[in-house]
Amino acid sequence: MENIGALAILLAFCLSLYAIVGSIAGKLKSRPFLVRSAERAVYAVWFLLTLASGILVNALLTSDFRFAYVASRSNRDMPGVYKFAAWWGGQEGSLLLWTWILSCYAAVVVWQNRKKFRDMMPYVTATLMVTQAFFLLLITFPLSPFQVLAIGKEVTAAPDGSGLNPLLQYWAMAIHPPTLYLGYVGFIVPFAFAMGSLITRQPGDAWIHTTRRWALVTWLFQSCGVLLGAGWAYAVLGWGGYWGWDPVENASILPWITGTAFLHSVMMQEKKGMMKVWNIVLISATFFLCIFGTMLTRSGIVSSVHAFAQSPIGKYFTIFLALHIAATIWLILDRLDYLKSESQLESVVSRESSFLFNNLLLLASCFAVLWGTLFPVISEAVTGEKISVDAPFFNRVNVPIGLFLLFLTGVGPLIAWRRSSLDSLKRAFLWPAAVGVVTVAALAALGVRHFYALMSFGLCAFVTSTIVAEFGKGAWTIRAKTRMNMARAMVELTHRNTRRYGGYIVHMAIVVMFIGFSGAAFNQDKTIEVKPGDRFRLGRYELRVKDLKQGETPNYRWGNVVLDIYTDNEFLGALQPEKRFYKVSRDQSSEVAIRRRLNEDLYVNFSGVAEDGRAVIQAYVFPLVSWIWVGFATLFFGTLICLVPSKVRLQFPKTKVVGVVTQDARVSR
Amino acid sequence: MRGYRVSLLLILVTVLSLAQSGSELVTPEIRRVGRHLACLCGVCKNTVADCAMLECGHSKPARIKIRSLLKEGKSDQAIIARFVAEEGKQALAVPPAEGFNLLAWVMPFAAIGAGLMLIGWFIRRMLPKPQTAAATDSRILDRYHEQIEKDLAQLD
């Protein structure tokens, strides 16, 4: 089977090269059969990669330890779901998954557009297949997932595998990487259409209209991937952190930020025909950052707990990225004439301007994260001395930028397209600003002194009131006209313009998440050694140690502490944090116990046993942290709303500049 | 049954080796100093104060050293300087704002400045140019001024 798997990958590599050459040659020589043949090669690549993936997954599920990959990433007693998840638990397997997802996307794109965009599609296919061929090159030659264990020339099987990293044996980790890959890989589709549009010198916005949903779905996957990763870190790592500014975490957020900027600025192009160059730049940057993130995770350029083992593929990525960036810059510069704006700004105080500032701050945040991630490498190269750029740096730089972005989230909807008068601005800002100020004053009066937390809560109140006002005004108008009740009127309003109101729901999700982030200013923790019968306090909780237990499963041994939780002598329930020791890999992991509530989480980690036999407990109170996960659900819901077609098809008349009428001309008339 | 006892013994031995007392190393004083120092274990990107791994190969010895230096009466700055002298600048959680490393702090905000200038340039370019109307106005005004001058001269 390993030979079939390896052959399938090799054939897929050859076919992807054929698809590149066939589609371009077919287009240039006007040979439609070649273009068709190249498109069929895309389907064939998908089939071959599905076959290869099936062989690897089968080997994992059946514990075929002749495969080096299977032996190093799984063991017999692992639950089936984690054996399956081992597909992406290592470098070679995860690259195969990456490549397979890309082949799925490519096949869907080719199928969806088999009768559309005949000018552009050959180049779209070629762009997709260039990336496909690159990743196939990696798993065909340096990092084949089908290497077998051998003694001399004889293939042999290990008696058991060394198991998957225990930290990865968690439900969120079983879906976090594929979700993130769906995001990473998906951004190639709008990029490929942008390139197709540039190469064929399309003056219109066809690529934008075609890929808007792709971009949105991809962005949703990326968001889910990032937040599932945060949820995993919170529940598994034992310290309650959900974001640690690790280079690999940063790599996942970078394309998300530029993708967010793209989703905003693309509206300028759709509604006003402006910022065409910028949108191409943004989607290209997003794609490059996806590839860059993949490189960062896999090349060992920067040290990270998440990174796969160091491998020689860094130089492959560098060459791929350099060539792509150079080609994209050349294309953009060469096609500038086709990317001219169709209209002008009418006023500085307009929705258009607010989008510019939104993009500026998003990109500044992206740059700050990228800069902080790479600075240790840059600094060492220049000065020869190692330095650390840790969480405090990222927090100091990004918190003010994030708060300003939150402010713009509220400001944007208050400013009209084209121009806003001072009076309308005053009317729009008065109540939301008042709500924000009152919130800050009330919290300060209640004793909150943390500056950023105060600012954040104030801005959250401000943005919430703008969003509520937007929904309220619209629904009220519909109610007045149709006599619907307010709830139905809101649903009707959202259905009439799903993109706008779905977008507001996503904005609300961001507000909810900021409330969750701000709660971190009030975290409390305690590390203590205890024995059964002991009790200790943390915040308003009293934790009483009831018992210490231990046992084993086929996969691991465990020990846990039973803690009864009280507040004011009222029993709230029991928590059982657990420590696991995996038999095969000889690794350990913590299964923290969390009492989740909207106001605060009580989070308990069983760290181990002290020299005197007492259990070492780390207990934390994390105020408002659950709001982050509520925000995640809201973001998911809001994005789905955006994807629903609007009931009313809106037309956006563009303000075309047809000429300037001068006073002279009018006088002479 | 015997196997089970053996496994319980194993877990006990294992867990015993997991952790030693760490609670006395997370005092507010140790945290105050540790907040300026990077945990160099290579696993987390936290400070010595925030690293939650009690048995961390870097933050635990660092905390023990901070505790002993505090007991000796050393100031926070002296302790931090001691760490920098022993481990280099990487001991600091954030790049020192000096020399080349100043760029770490400056660049994000310089990027915002450059972006603002770019937006200013873009807005100026994209706004309708008022010069045409202004120039026309001034030409018309000049014509009227000339006419007034002429009429005034005739009056004289």
List the helices and strands and how they pair.
The complex is a heterodimer of chains A (669) and B (156).
Chain A: H1 2-28, H2 32-61, H3 68-73, H4 80-85, H5 91-112, H6 121-140, E1 150-151, E2 154-155, H7 171-186, H8 188-199, H9 206-236, H10 247-272, H11 276-299, H12 314-334, H13 351-383, H14 391-411, H15 422-445, H16 451-482, H17 486-496, H18 498-518, E3 524-530, E4 535-538, E5 541-552, E6 556-567, E7 570-575, E8 578-582, E9 588-591, E10 593-595, E11 600-609, E12 615-623, H19 626-643, H20 663-668
Antiparallel strand pairs in A: 1-2, 3-12, 4-5, 5-6, 6-7, 6-8, 8-9, 10-11, 11-12
Chain B: H1 2-18, H2 28-34, H3 59-71, H4 76-87, H5 102-126, H6 131-155
Helix pairs in contact in B: 2-3
Can you describe this structure?
The complex is a heterodimer of chains A (about 675) and B (about 160). Helix content of chain A is about 60%, strand content about 10%. Chain A is α+β, with helices and mostly antiparallel strands and about 675 residues long. In chain A, strands 4, 5, 6, 7, 8 and 9 form a 6-stranded antiparallel β-sheet that branches. Chain A is globular. With about 160 residues, chain B is mostly helical. Chain B has helices at about 1-20, 30-35, 60-70, 75-85, 100-125, 130-155. Chain B is rod-shaped and about 100 Å long. The chains are: A alpha+beta (about 675), B mainly alpha (about 160). Chains A and B meet through α13, α14, β3, β6 and β11 of A and α1, α5 and α6 of B.
